[in-house]
């Protein structure tokens, strides 16, 4: 019998983060790149409505994808990884039961997704070799349905993390506009590289106007820093994925190298000031997107900001700022090496 490999809590954390980061990219990138394009093309052919629906629906598979990829991180068998994917989806909060049936409502709470993926792996490894010929019958029940049920029970409590953060950010809206813009920009620049959903936060607190604009600018500030740093150490496809909306794939880097927040926060402060001076506006549903799908910039233009000023706020200030900040912190002050931006893909 093969020797069972032992994992520490740190091993679990790193592998769950790595699987989660890749799962989020796979689940969300199609809609991030093509969703807006297909929706705009709907008047020119019904096929584009179908395509828009497909890439949008693909997002709902994210928790299951995360579970499968986390299982692969632990070198589990294909069947075991798929069952872990099922357990993760069932406990994610990505669906609700209604009188009409089950309704998909999003990608779930990512914190709970990670917890259930880790727990499902732990239980699967604990049961390894103990179920005998009944493995095919009992594993889906004990891990799939069992851990999935635990996820639904923990979901309301885990979701308190998101609501608490939302309440804190909402309190910023009571401050002087410049301070508000800077603090919200910084908050969203950090959240976009964490397991917390910036889109969920924006909608939950109903942030709008300058606050929503600053939030979207903060997401963009983080994107710019990750793109500038990534281009030095990652393949072009990885850097492009980040630019197109896959910032959360860098969550493992945040845990391993917390100093990655130094350039992110600095750029968010600079970009937040820019959002205030230009008076970038937004809505709750656009606050967490940044430049993904050009959602933030388009909304700002529709709310009265000139195209030129939107380009300055969303592209010039964040990306030029990120470049100068990278030169300062990497070359001059030597606070970090570009290795902190290295993305480690899922291992088979």
Describe this protein's structure.
The chain has 348 residues and is mainly α. The protein has a two-stranded antiparallel sheet. It starts with 8 loop residues before the first helix and ends in a 16-residue tail after the last helix. The mean pLDDT is 91.
Basic shape: globular
Helix content: 55-70%
Query: How far is the first residue's CA from the last residue's CA?
Result: 21 Å
Give the number of DSSP strands: 2
**Integer count of domains:** 2
One letter per element, helices H and strands E, the order comes to: HHHHEEHHHHHHHHHH
Biggest sheet: strands side by side, in what order? 1-2
Largest sheet: 2 strands, antiparallel
Number of helical elements: 14
Taking pLDDT < 50 over at least 5 consecutive residues as the criterion, the unreliable ranges are none
Q: How would you describe the oligomerization state of the chains in this entry? A: single chain
**What fraction of the residues are assigned to beta strands by DSSP?**
under 5%
Mean pLDDT: 91
Cα radius of gyration in angstroms: 21 Å
Supply the helix-strand structural class: mainly alpha
Transmembrane segments: 12-38, 44-70, 82-104, 110-127, 134-155, 175-193, 200-227, 260-278, 307-329
Subcellular location: Cell membrane
Domain Phosphotransferase system EIIC: 15-342
Keywords: Cell membrane, Membrane, Sugar transport, Transmembrane, Transmembrane helix, Transport
